[in-house]
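REVIEWER CHECKLIST
Item 1: Sequence provided? yes
Item 2: Single chain? yes
Item 3: Sequence as submitted:
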Amino acid sequence: MLGGGSPIASLFLQPIPGSDVAVLLGLQKALHESGAIAWEFVRAHSEGWQELIAQIEATGWEAITACCGLSREELEHTAARLAACRAVVFAWAMGITHHANGTANVQAIANTAVLTGNVGRPGAGTMPIRGHSMCRASARWGSRCSFASRCSGPWSSCSAARSARCPATTPAP
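Item 4: Structure as written out by the authors:
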């Protein structure tokens, strides 16, 4: 991967390990600032989004980039590519869930999918990839028509070693 990714990848980002939620909050902030939030979808199909938007607005770029190690430009470029897509499938494997911040990681992915309107329609959605058959039942997130998007302390994915440069937040209700 040090060579820039595989032939199937068209974008290569290398964030600080464990900073997944900071990366996603950066993408959400870039989407918000560029006017790319799917407001009609968000208002119709989610709840608690006001707290997430307040957190996005209150968190500065310096805090986000210090936590995740990516530049504002990298995050804005990625968000612009995300916004330009007709449909997006957000896929992740056990590296996201089998992590001290697994719940916050998945919530941040789900929040990004909801903010972009990529839930519950053809060619779009969330797709957790599991490694064995005993995980099948938990891989059904997003298969219901009720989408409750909640923000839950996105900076909890910053490790203790980086806590000095990662802002503390309180989870939304």
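Item 5: Key structural point noted by reviewer: The longest helix spans residues 20-33.
Item 6: Recommendation: ____
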